[in-house]
Amino acid sequence: MSSIDPNSLSNLQDITTKSIHLDLAVDFDKKLLHGHVVLSVEVLSSNLSQVVLDTNGLSIFSACEINNGSESSKLEFTLAEKDELYGSALTINLLSARNKGDKIQVKIEYQTTDESAALQFLTPQQTRGKKYPFLFTQCQSIYARSMFPCQDSPSVKILYTANLRTPKPLVGLMSAISVSSREEDDHTVFSFEQNIPVPSYLVVVAVGDLRRHELGPRTAVWAEPEMIDACAYEFENLEHIVSVGESLITPYVWGRYDLLVLPPSFPYGGMENPCLTFVTPTMIAGDRSLVDLISHELAHSWSGNLVTTKNWEHFWLNEGWTTFFERQITAELSGKPMSQLLSTLGLEHLLSDIKLMGEDNVLTNLVPNLTRVHPDDAFSGVPYEKGYNLLYYLKELLGHSFWSSFIKSYIHKFSNKSIVTNDFKDLLYERVNEELGVDGMSKLETVDWNSWFNKPGMPPVENKFDDSLQVAAIALADRWCATTGDYSDFNKPEFDKLYTHQKLIFFNELKSRQEKQAAGDNQAGYTDLSNPNLLDAMDSLYELSFCGNFEVRAGWLYYALGAHYKGCFKAAVGIVEDQGRMKFTRPIYRLLNKCVEEGGDKLAKETFLRLENTYHPICARLVRKDLGL
Ligand SMILES: CC/C=C\C/C=C\C[C@@H](O)/C=C/C=C/C=C\[C@@H](O)CCCC(=O)O
Ligand SMILES: [Zn+2]
């Protein structure tokens, strides 16, 4: 293990991979990828005799060197015993010692196995079209090592080319520019090039019955044929969103910005795979109300994909900056009040996660120590929202004009690099000193950096966000809290007038007040917010339990399950049957599991065990852990 990255077993201090070539075939019958990878490696130390790579769940068949295009004799290799967190180190013994600056090409023949957690093979039944199987990979955080042997650390950035052989009539896509495709019997070979260096977690694959709808000169959406029209409508403004992003930051350099809408088991809202952002179908709301997610994934084209965290302890550099850019784009697209409303919702999400993890839990540090911690087990809203609030606070402290130019300096200086928190901080001090002088430096001296970076819990400073869009949502919550059993004063049109995110403020407000009541604090004299008659009336009036907007449905269920309302159990099971996005699935299972007196714990465990194999392995592992199974 290297001090550069505690979550990688590769000898990062001795070698760095500069590029790879993947030649893979997709076998849907055996549910595996097989073929080879060629790694072009630069030696960083002297007298090097071994290349050590990350693997997890791979079967390694052979290794050899390639010298001037010809393969050497087979190299001896060993696959270490599997580490439960980080997989198996693959140690390849070189034929002769190498020194700093030497270049090595190593070719490894391998295949994935059913332990390759990056991969999810879907049966036709799990797709929208129900005719063909589907494959997609999710490699962030440390799953690329289960897709191909590599230095699976964001401290290493690689160019890549790939040939992907898939059975006809399916389409193969990757996080790169498509350069050609050719027919081979009953298969198609799709070829790709990624000419901007990326970390291993951004090398991904998707194969399925897919159609493409062009949205602009750089943009398109891919989806199953049954969804392509709805997706084309939802993302009609995508080209404009890309233009807004580059007007706020710097020019967009990746060539294409396409979207791929996955089947509902995709475990995240989106994943910023370069040239081809993967998105969940749960964001196809039919009213374009959830495109802030697209703004987020697009923003990663700068923060995360160009300027990358060196390891997962500095993940906030990816997500805090991206959330900051996302909210700037939202302000341009939907107005500053909406951007500030999302900031308020983000703080509520942060508070909820910190309460769940524990206010003294060191994994709620903005820069946590992840030695012997799987990054996914540290995943929460902290890197997103505590990181965003730090950057927002610094912008307010130092001024909009300085901050706008600093953003450009930060992206230009660190593009194509992998950095740590101090790299960001050092550049900030350098630019403030140059542009703001003594006055700016004295402002920086007021920043409690240690609390921001190294202390658990909520941020040391509370930013104040515009609350004008909250008024209508809070007022509606107040009216429900003042009821005495007669609900005839309420109607669905007044609820539907609220924006999606105002509805989430409404539910969060009710949930927060219900939690206070459950803890014995009802000083405000509100009606009993756990009263089944009230919840039943709200559900019926607003048609919540099977609402087509997953954010609204989930927001309602978080409140109703928190109130131990058994009348929503069917809908709770319904949402975890309908999709596998962890943002919704994990809280629903956790809340249902806490409804012990109502039998929710039994229902949660039975439902999970019934659905476990329909979830992506990442989701299945974390929900199993949440339920204590
Ligand atoms: C301190 C945390 C350290 C490391 C975590 C690193 C990676 C976490 C890994 O689990 C991957 C996360 C991928 C997230 C992808 C999309 C998110 O931006 C959105 C998640 C919420 C949603 O579904 O909208
Ligand atoms: Zn993100």
How would you characterize this protein structure?
- 48% of the residues are buried.
- The chain folds into four domains: 1-199, Immunoglobulin-like (Sandwich); 210-301, 2-Layer Sandwich (Zincin-like); 308-454, Neutral Protease, domain 2; 470-627, Alpha Horseshoe (Serine Threonine Protein Phosphatase 5, Tetratricopeptide repeat), CATH 1.25.40.320.
- The strands form five sheets. Strands 5-4-8-2-1-11-14-13 form an eight-stranded mixed β-sheet, with no helix packed on it. Strands 16-17-18-20-19 form a five-stranded mixed β-sheet, covered by helices on one side.
- Strand 16 (211-214) and strand 17 (219-223) form a beta hairpin.
- The protein has 629 residues and is α+β, with helices and mostly antiparallel strands.
- Helices cover 37% and strands 23% of the residues.
- The chain binds the ligand CC/C=C\C/C=C\C[C@@H](O)/C=C/C=C/C=C\[C@@H](O)CCCC(=O)O and zinc ion.
- The ligand CC/C=C\C/C=C\C[C@@H](O)/C=C/C=C/C=C\[C@@H](O)CCCC(=O)O is lined by residues 140-141, 268-271, 312, 315, 368, 375-376, 378-379, 383, 581, 583.
- The ligand CC/C=C\C/C=C\C[C@@H](O)/C=C/C=C/C=C\[C@@H](O)CCCC(=O)O binds next to strand 19 and helix 6.
- One of its GO terms (molecular function) is aminopeptidase activity.
- Residues 468-627 form the Peptidase M1 leukotriene A4 hydrolase/aminopeptidase C-terminal domain.
- It holds the Pfam family Leuk-A4-hydro_C.
